[in-house]
Structure to design on (182 residues):
């Protein structure tokens, strides 16, 4: 386990504990995602925050004025702490760790669902129910578009792959033929 992931888990756990006390677990997650997307989506912001030539006070001032009132105080303080300690590069890992703590706490598991098109909410709900019953957990769907599947779905939950895609079926059929020919 890398040093960054250990650090990220500490920050995420501390923030998650505050979120539980405040009964704001899902709100904090949404705010973390929004801040991470804003920071990582703009090269100028990344350069500014990462620059050793800009004082920490200046960075904190800009972040404070940009995020004050838009995110909760605990999330803002976490971001500021990451900047102060020169660990803002670990923000994505903090978000990921936070989501993992949240999932464990709420009995959620994330299923990466690969499909050839964006699934509708009805389709996501159906997949979540079907696979939730299989693994005995509540499923959160992350839909990933993969045109190479040709059709059908591939669902990844933890280390388990459920491949119902047309490409997967064709591959299994080809392997079956090859075994019979040899």
């Amino acid at each position: 386990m890398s040093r960054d992931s250990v650090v990220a888990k500490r920050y995420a756990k501390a923030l998650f504990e505050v979120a539980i006390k405040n009964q704001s677990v899902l709100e904090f997650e949404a705010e973390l995602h929004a801040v991470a997307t804003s920071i990582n989506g703009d090269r100028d912001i990344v350069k500014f925050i990462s620059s050793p030539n800009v004082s920490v006070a200046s960075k904190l001032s800009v972040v404070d004025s940009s995020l004050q009132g838009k995110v909760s105080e605990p999330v803002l303080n976490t971001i500021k702490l990451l900047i102060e300690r020169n660990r803002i590069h670990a923000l994505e890992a903090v978000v990921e760790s936070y989501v993992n703590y949240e999932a464990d706490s709420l009995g959620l598991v994330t299923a990466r669902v690969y499909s050839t098109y964006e699934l509708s909410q009805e389709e996501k709900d159906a997949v979540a129910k079907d696979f939730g019953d299989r693994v005995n957990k509540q499923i959160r769907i992350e839909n990933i578009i993969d045109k190479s599947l040709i059709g059908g779905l591939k669902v990844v939950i933890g280390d388990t792959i459920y491949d119902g895609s047309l490409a997967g079926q064709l591959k299994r059929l080809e392997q079956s033929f090859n075994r019979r020919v040899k």
